[in-house]
Amino acid sequence: xxxxxxxxxxxxxxxxxxxxxxxxxxxxxxxxxxxxxxxxxxxxxxxxxxxxxxxxxxxxxxxxxxxxxxxxxxxxxxxxxxxxxxxxxxxxxxxxxxxxxxxxxxxxxxxxxxxxxxxxxxxxxxxxxxxxxxxxxxxxxxxxxxxxxxxxxxxxxxxxxxxxxxxxxxxxxxxxxxxxxxxxxxxxxxxxxxxxxxxxxxxxxxxxxxxxxxxxxxxxxxxxxxxxxxxxxxxxxxxxxxxxxxxxxxxxxxxxxxxxxxxxxxxxxxxxxxxxxxxxxxxxxxxxxxxxxxxxxxxxxxxxxxxxxxxxxxxxxxxxxxxxxxxxxxxxxxxxx
Length: 337
Hints:
The protein is of the alpha+beta class. Helix content is 15%, strand content 41%.
């Protein structure tokens, strides 16, 4: 389910500062903002839903609550099913109370939101107890900080995957191959987007299948050569050679659903390599992977070992506008061959 993003524009004492936060929300594509009752004129700024805060009660039926003591937690838990939603204001509470809220409010009709002052907090709240909060209220003082939250949320949604047709597979000399071990177990059909060109990334499956010779390692993606791109959060790419323990990585399944994980470790070893070339939308793209039976690409009918790929086989890819500078998309002419 898509997570909601709001902006708290009710906190600054200066009205001009509150207005700047609402403007930043609009420019970032965020459609809801918490404001003061006297700021109704902000509606003229654009198409945005203003949630008026009157002593902790919002005009959409939600209640803003702070957790400072165990007694506060009990009062908030008692709101389950009695209001539209609870917004947990930024305070010094830990993640445990949030877990309690998510578990208690589930299926009660009362939604749970949490205020976050940085994107790291927001990601944590969105994934707590796997389902996460229903939304995040961005609580920053600098209007320029709002955009990062919007980019983060767009990166957490589903990706459109296309189909590419294999046109050539050939062996090359030994190379440095990267296995990315994550802190998360993946399932069949789930892995990472990898490629030699940022314009086309191939869905490489995790080692989530037994083959009779090697035990499954569902936390691992045998991703490819050190030069290859891997899709990361917020629409950025990284080189496989750059990944380090603790870095965030994006996991993707055959339906384009995404979730976040972190690198546990990377193993770089010399292995026999192979080039896989595929055509999509009249263009030919490639990636280089280890020549091993356990390395599999995900196709529309299931995973295919790269050692068995043939011309005409179809695989899932992510086609996007190419050109990156330090992993970020740039609007300039860049050719990657």
